[in-house]
Design brief:
Number of helices: 5
Largest sheet: 5 strands, parallel
CATH topology: Rossmann fold
Strand order of the largest sheet: 2-1-3-4-5
Distance between the termini: 12 Å
Helix content: 40-55%
CATH architecture: 3-Layer(aba) Sandwich
Radius of gyration: 13 Å
Length: about 120
């Protein structure tokens, strides 16, 4: 059985390291992108099973990246969980309206909880 592949679009190297370590320990393939351009390219190229997407990236808005993922025929069916510290209900609602399957606040979960959420979304 092939491993489940997660793409994490995140600009904080400490966050990438933390979640890469946890997901790999749980048996997942884990790839990361430091910005939206790289994330969109990797989503098309690698065809991950799920994308974890930060909203607050250095020079980009994660909502725009979500729109691009959902408007691209090659990536539109990949589930996206917004995984951010941006705790605004209006952004949460907008992300869900654009097709995100979840909106998780990083500061309110530990790594094992996000792994569990991913498993729930992918029905593992």
């Amino acid at each position: 059985m092939p491993k489940i592949k997660i793409l994490f679009i995140e600009d904080d190297p400490d966050q990438i390291f933390l979640y890469q370590t946890k997901f790999k320990l749980e048996g997942y393939d884990f790839i990361s992108a430091k910005d939206g351009v790289e994330g969109l390219r990797l989503a098309e190229q690698e065809k991950p099973d799920l994308v974890l997407l930060d909203i607050l990236l250095a020079d980009e808005n994660g909502i725009d990246i979500l729109k691009n993922l959902k408007n691209n025929k090659k990536t539109k069916n990949i589930p996206v969980i917004v995984f951010t510290n941006f705790d605004k209900e209006e952004i949460n609602q907008r992300a869900v309206a654009l097709g995100a399957v979840g909106y998780v606040i990083k500061s309110k979960v530990v790594p094992s909880e996000i792994v569990k959420k991913v498993a729930e979304v992918l029905k593992l």
